[in-house]
Amino acid sequence: MTGAYLDHAATTPVRPSVAAAMWPWIGGGRFGNASGGHAVARAARQAVEEAREVVAAGVGCRPGEVVFTSGGTESDATAIAQAVGRGRPVCSAIEHHAVLEPVLALGGATIPVDHHARVDLDAVPTDAGLVSVMLVNNEVGTIQPLAEVRLRMGADAVLHTDAVQALPWLDVAALAADADLLSISGHKLGGPQGVGALVVRPRVELRPLLRGGGQELDRRSGTHDVAGIVGLAEAVRCTVAERSATVERVGALRDRLVDGLAGVIDGCAETVPRAGKVAGNAHLRIDGVDAESLLVLLDQAGVFASIGASCASGAVEASHVTRAMGLDPRAAASLRLTLGWSSTPDDVDRALTVVPEAVAQLRARRRAA
């Protein structure tokens, strides 16, 4: 790929070590079904269980609490389904649609946020059966105070957190220790797409979303994606081992990117202060331009960014996150530039050239219209 890839919150390139770990199970002659009983199957089962130990260590739980899934959406859906029979589910108003839609489908409600996308703790209900608050927002990068959310909940309520965007940047083992259910996804970490995990703490007796063969201790049926699970574990291992260095390096790149753009583009500002969000997020508001037109020009010039969360159609629509924050989409365009483990100074350099030129071009068109 040529150009500057600045959409790591949508997906990340696969790490070389992840590809190497997966290769034996893709094209290297290893292929067993982990549910079988013979030697080939037992080797697959061993790989799955070793991966489970690595993932558990990375997120701060016991291996038996890790349930492998097809990704963040399945993990979230399984978690929210646990509200059935417990009571009304609620979630923050800025959750990923994988949480928001199941909550609303079950007759749940949302918790408002402030203009920095921080959840209103005074609005956390004490009578909800399940509360879901993402540790890090996928659009603007805001970090949520999960421990404080837990203190406001009812004693019998279940706390779920979508930690998909948090694991690359934060010590999830510490910050999400109060969560009963926790979702992660491989492709946000330099792992493969299509694999994730749901952490299920002992106080939750999980009711499976998928039934059938009884895999994952009857908590998630379906033949194990051994290659994907191995890749997820290696991505988690690398992420945790390198996180401090990555946060420092990428945070410096993000700061140079944001300061550089704000310094040359009038009416350009960060949406959320850096102290309250993760190092890889550079969400900006830019006056006097149309967001969709801006993305088109950036794409043509080799800067790959987004406005908000990825969706199936690739269409651009007003973000429910920025609306919940009280931001008017007509007042300024939102631009999400997100960095990750593979980001380089060259990516920032290209964006610092291309983005101001694109904004100037769009403003000139507007004046001429």
Characteristics:
seven-stranded mixed sheet; 369 residues; three-stranded antiparallel sheet; 12 strands; globular; alpha/beta
Biggest sheet layout: 7 strands, mixed
Low-pLDDT windows of residues:
none
Q: Identify the overall geometry.
A: globular
Physical arrangement of strands within the biggest beta sheet: 2-8-7-6-5-3-4
Distance from N terminus to C terminus (CA atoms, Å) equals: 35 Å
What structural class is derived from the secondary structure elements? alpha/beta
- Quaternary state of the chains: single chain
Number of strands: 12
C-alpha Rg, in Å? 21 Å
Q: What proportion strand?
A: 5-15%
Helix count from the secondary structure assignment: 11
Proportion in helices: 25-40%
List SSEs in N-to-C order.
EHHEHEHEEHEHEEHHEEHEHEH
Question: What does this entry look like structurally?
Answer:
The protein has 369 residues and is α/β, with parallel strands linked by helices. Helices cover 39% and strands 13% of the residues. It has helices at 16-26, 39-59, 72-81, 97-105, 146-152, 172-175, 215-218, 226-264, 291-300, 320-324, 345-368; strands at residues 4-5, 66-69, 89-92, 109-111, 130-132, 158-162, 181-185, 196-200, 268-270, 281-286, 303-304, 333-338. The strands form three sheets. It has a seven-stranded mixed sheet, sandwiched between helices. A three-stranded antiparallel sheet has the order 9-10-12, with helices on one face.
